Amino acid sequence: MSDAIAFARAHRGRFRQELDDFLRIPSVSARSEHNADLRRAAEWVRSSMTAAGLSARIFPTEGHPVVVGEWKQAAAGAPTILVYGHYDVQPPEPLELWDSPPFEPDIRDGRIYARGSADDKGQLFLHIKALEAHLATRGSLPVNVIVLAEGEEEVGSPNLAPFVQNHLDLLAADTVVISDSAMFAPGQPSLLFSLRGMAYFEIHATGPSTDLHSGGYGGAVANPANALARIVGDLHDAEGRIAIPGFYDDVAPPPPDILSRIRALPFDAEAWTLETGVPPVGGEDAYSPLERLWTRPTCDVNGFLSGYTGEGAKTVLPAKAVAKVSFRLVPNQTPERVRELTERHLERVAPPGISLELVELHGGRPWQARLEGPVFEAAARALERSFATRPVLTGEGGSIPIVVELEEMLGANSLLIGFALPGANMHAPNEWFAVDSFERGIDTLIHLYDELAAGTGNG
Amino acid sequence: MSDAIAFARAHRGRFRQELDDFLRIPSVSARSEHNADLRRAAEWVRSSMTAAGLSARIFPTEGHPVVVGEWKQAAAGAPTILVYGHYDVQPPEPLELWDSPPFEPDIRDGRIYARGSADDKGQLFLHIKALEAHLATRGSLPVNVIVLAEGEEEVGSPNLAPFVQNHLDLLAADTVVISDSAMFAPGQPSLLFSLRGMAYFEIHATGPSTDLHSGGYGGAVANPANALARIVGDLHDAEGRIAIPGFYDDVAPPPPDILSRIRALPFDAEAWTLETGVPPVGGEDAYSPLERLWTRPTCDVNGFLSGYTGEGAKTVLPAKAVAKVSFRLVPNQTPERVRELTERHLERVAPPGISLELVELHGGRPWQARLEGPVFEAAARALERSFATRPVLTGEGGSIPIVVELEEMLGANSLLIGFALPGANMHAPNEWFAVDSFERGIDTLIHLYDELAAGTGNG
To answer: Domain check: are B92 and B156 in the same one?
Structure first.
C-alpha cells in the first residue's frame, strides 16, 4: 500500500466530515435566492483546494463563480491533467419525498444521503482528497494538475466556455478528467464511451387574455391546456419515436464495436423494475433498454403547469399553459438544429386561438470518447487496482454539455471516470453516494495520477 | 313608483356598504383553511335576513352551513317561492392577475370588483334587499318566501340535497327562483332555458416510484407527464369532438323552437374577441358559438401539474402527473354515465408502465326550463318593468347542479333570472358586478314578488 493510500485511509473520518460540511451548503444554481449559497460553496471549494496544497483562486463570472486550483511543478515532460467538476446542485424539490432533509447529510445503509452527494460535490471532493493525499505524503504530484470547479453545470454552464476561452494559458492541459457519472454496477467500475447531449425548452401556450369560467366560455374558447397537452402528447408516435419531422436525420447509429459491447453487457430488468418501480418500457420499441439509454435521443416532459392545481375543483379555463420539455441528443445532433426543427414543428401544429412560444433554457452537444491510447489504459489500471476488476465501457444517458466545449477549446481529450452507483437518485429525491464509492474513489484517483504519469511515459 | 321601489332607491348607499362587508369575507369553499370564513359568511347572511324581516336560522351540515330565512304569512292561496343562492365563492387565484385585491371590493367604471360580486353573493343579496324593501314599506310580502343560502355550491353542493331531503316541510315551495347567471347583454335581460351539467375529475398518472434523472433513465422509462399529455390531448378529435367512445350517445339535440331562438340571437364575435383576447374558435367546428356554449357538451382541462415547474431547468423525469378535467353536460347526459365511459376509455388507453386513476370531484345533471306558464310570464313582466324591454331566452354554459335536484325533491319548477353581465369574470380574476345590475336587479325582484302573486292568481 502506497503512503498516499495509507494517508487517505487514515484520514477518512475527517474527509467524511469535510464532505458533510460541503453538502450542507444548498448551492442550487437554478434558483436566484441561493446566490449567496453558491458563493459560499465556491469559497468552500477554494479553501479545500488550498488545504490540499493547491494554489487556488475564485474567478467571478456573470453568473456563479469559477474556482481554479493548480499545481504545476511536476517533472519536465509530465502531462498536465485538468480535473473538471461542479459545486452546484439540482433543486431538491419535491421536498416531501426526501426521507432526510436534502442538505443535512444522513448516513443510512452505507450510503451518504444528500443533494449533491453523487452529482457532483461528492465526486469533485474525491479528486481534491486524492491530490491532498499525494501532496501530504510526497510533497509533489506525478503530473501537473489543474482543478476547475464551476457553479453552473446544472443550468447548462452558460459562463464556463467564455471563462475557459479567456484563460486558455491557465487551463492548458493534455487530458480532461471528469468524475460526474456512475459505475455500471456495484463493484463493476466503468469508463464512459459517450454522453448524450441536451436541448431543454419551455413551450408556452397562450389562449384567452385571462382565466375564464369553464361554463360560460367552455366550448367556444380554445383551451391552452388541452392544446398544449395535445401538442406535447403528439411529440411521440405510437412506436415511441419522436414525431418531429426531420428529428432523426442527424441521428448516427453507434459504431459497431460499441454496439457489440453494449449487447454484451447484462441488463437486469428485474433490478431496474425494483429500483424504479416500473419496467423498462419507455422509449422506442425497436431498441433494447441500454441502447435506448445510451445511443438514442429522447423527448421528456420535465414539468407541466396550467390552471388551478390546488385542492378541490375550480371550473376555470386557463389563460395559459407551460411545459418544460427536454431532448437528450446523440451524435450527430446539435441543440441548434433541434431547436429549429421544434420551432418549425410548433408553427405547423399551433391550433387557431392558441399562440405558441418556444423558450430555450439550455443545450449541449453529445460527446464521444476516444477509446484508444494511454490515458484510457491508465484509467483502466487505476480502477483495476482499487476494484480488483477491469472496467467495462458504458454510455451515459445524461449530459455534461461542457465536455465537448472543453475538448475543443483546450485541444484535449476527456476521460470520464465516475463512482456513483446506479439508482443514486441524481436529480431526484434521496440522492445518495455509497460510502464504498467514496473510499475506493479516492484510492482510484490516487492511483490514477500515478498511472497517468506512468502510462504517458513520465512516471 | 311603488313605495318599496322608493325605499330601495333611498337606501342604495347603505345596501352597497352592506354588500361590501359581505364581499370582504373570503368564503372560499374549496379550501379548508377558509372554514371559519364560511361560518362567518353564513352568520352574515343570517343576520342580513333577520334585518330584512325574515325569520332566519343557520343549519350546520357535514360541510359548510346552510342558512334558511322564511316569511310565510301571505294571504291564503298565495304561492310559496323558494329563493336559492350561495354565499361561497371560487378560489381567487391567480392573485397576481387581480387589479385590486379579490376580497377588497373596489368600484371602477360603474362596476363592483370583488370575488363573489356576481357569483353569487351579489345576486343573493339582491333578493334579501328586495324582500327588505317590501317588508319595510308594507309590513308583508305578496307571496310566501323561503330563502335558502348554501356554502358549497362551488364544490358541487355535496350536503345540500340531504339537507333538503331532511327539511321538506320547511322548504316546500311552488317555484324555485335563482339569480346566479347572466343577462344576454347590457340592457338586455334574459331568462334561462337551460343549464349545462358537470362532471369534474382528476386523472392521476403514476409512473416510477420516485422522480428520476431524465438523462440516466430517459428513453427507458414511460414518462407519466408525456403519457398524461397524450391521453388528455387525445380527448378531442381533429374536429373538436370529444373522442371518448359513446360520449355522444346520450346527447340530445335541442328542441327546434330553442334552436330557432338561439339562431335568432345576435352573436358579436368582435366583442367576444375583444373581451376574451381570442376568437370563438374552440370546440366543435360544426356548431355556432352560442350553440356550442349552450347546447353542446365540453371537455376542458382546468389544471395540469407535473414535475418541476419552478424557475430554470430541472432535468427530472416526473414520478406522476395530475390533470383536472371537467366535462359540461347537456340533456340527456349524466355525470354517472360520463364517469363510466371515461373510466372505460382510460383503461383502454393506459400505456405500459403508467397507472391511471380517475377521481371524481363533483358532478351535476343538466337542467331544462319549463318555458310556458305564469311564472315565466311574471318574470318577463318584472324584467320589462325594470329594463323597459322584454327578456330574451338564453342558455347558460355553466352549471348549478342543485337545480335539478331541488326541482325533483320539492316537486317545483325553477326560474333562473340572472343579472350579471357577459364578461363578469365569474371564476376568473377581476370578477365584477355592474352597479346598474345591482340597482335594476333589486327593482326587478321587488316587481317579481308582486308579479308572481298577480301572475299566479293571488295578487
So the answer is: yes
